[in-house]
Every structure is written in C-alpha cells, then in structure tokens.
Amino acid sequence: MGEHQVSLCEDFVHRYSEPTGPHYAHADIEELLTSYNLSLQKLHLPTVDLPASVLERVNFDVVEEQAKANSYTMQLNSEQRNVVEILLSAVYNNAADTPKCYFLDGPAGTGKTFVYSTLLHTIHGRGDDVIPVASTGIAATLLIRGRTAHSVFRIPIDLNATSTCNLKPNTKEADM
C-alpha cells in the first residue's frame, strides 16, 4: 500500500485497531478487486493470507460484550426480545429439529440492526465468535465485523448455470 497506507487504512484502524486495521484494509481491497475479476496477485501486488471474513479473530472483551448485551437487551421491545430469544435458541440448540434459517424483515427504523447488534454482543459475551453476513456491502457495514455473502461464501459475481462457490471444505475459511 506504500505511501497511501495511512489514508487507505484509517477507517479500518478506527474500527478495529492499529495493528489489525491494515490487514482488514488489504483484505477489503482484495474483495473489491474480485468484483472486477482482478486480484492483488494478478496486479503483482502483495497478497492477503486469509480473506477478510476469517482474518484474525478479534479478541473481544467478554465482560464488556456481556455488559453491552445486557444493556441492549434491556432496550428491546417485546417483539424484538422474542426474536432475539428464538435466534439465540437456534444458535445454541444443536437438536436436529431446531430450525436454523430465519429471515428478519421490516421497514426502515424498526430496529433490525439493533436486534442484530444485540445478538452479536450476546454471542461475543458468551466467548463465541460469529461472522455476520449481509447481501450488500452497505448492509454489512451496519453489522459488527459484517462481511458480504460474496466474500464469505466465495459466491462468484458473474453467475451462470454452472457457477459454484469457491469455499473449500476443511480450510480455515470453512471452519469459521
């Protein structure tokens, strides 16, 4: 990144930390290039070892995350609280008959992002990690460490009848 590193990394350093911010910026640039069928390697630039979706697990302060989870939970209305309880049950209940796929929908301003933030703080407060995934980059920026589905699941940008995801089993990416 050279002479422009500070400018390219400042948002990531602010969001993450001084040591990890540049790694996230580098991975984000790689992700943007893939949408144009390019890569850092194709442009003869240094490559990222891991995609941004699995770049260094952030070591959340569990006590701080628990406090945030408690604070957020206290602010939920009854419908939001019910949704959070259902989703946490789905995350932590390994029974085969527990539904695992949910779709949260609602008009702007109804608290969807707040529900997601409550879930994420609760999960981090339990010492667990999660990769929040959204369909667009804008939606992903609203989530704590949010990533796009294309970057996490290696969904090709140009889809056709034979397109497949490039996420390989038994890799660090798949393990996350």
Automatic annotation (TrEMBL):
<keyword id="KW-0234">DNA repair</keyword>
<keyword id="KW-0067">ATP-binding</keyword>
<dbReference type="InterPro" id="IPR027417">
    <property type="entry name" value="P-loop_NTPase"/>
</dbReference>
<feature type="domain" description="DNA helicase Pif1-like DEAD-box helicase">
    <location>
        <begin position="75"/>
        <end position="175"/>
    </location>
</feature>
<dbReference type="GO" id="GO:0043139">
    <property type="term" value="F:5'-3' DNA helicase activity"/>
</dbReference>
<keyword id="KW-0547">Nucleotide-binding</keyword>
<dbReference type="GO" id="GO:0006310">
    <property type="term" value="P:DNA recombination"/>
</dbReference>
<dbReference type="GO" id="GO:0005524">
    <property type="term" value="F:ATP binding"/>
</dbReference>
<dbReference type="Pfam" id="PF05970">
    <property type="entry name" value="PIF1"/>
</dbReference>
<dbReference type="GO" id="GO:0000723">
    <property type="term" value="P:telomere maintenance"/>
</dbReference>
<dbReference type="GO" id="GO:0016887">
    <property type="term" value="F:ATP hydrolysis activity"/>
</dbReference>
<keyword id="KW-0233">DNA recombination</keyword>
<keyword id="KW-0378">Hydrolase</keyword>
<comment type="similarity">
    <text>Belongs to the helicase family.</text>
</comment>
<dbReference type="InterPro" id="IPR010285">
    <property type="entry name" value="DNA_helicase_pif1-like_DEAD"/>
</dbReference>
<keyword id="KW-0227">DNA damage</keyword>
<keyword id="KW-0347">Helicase</keyword>
<dbReference type="GO" id="GO:0006281">
    <property type="term" value="P:DNA repair"/>
</dbReference>
<protein>
    <recommendedName>
        <fullName>ATP-dependent DNA helicase</fullName>
        <ecNumber>5.6.2.3</ecNumber>
    </recommendedName>
</protein>
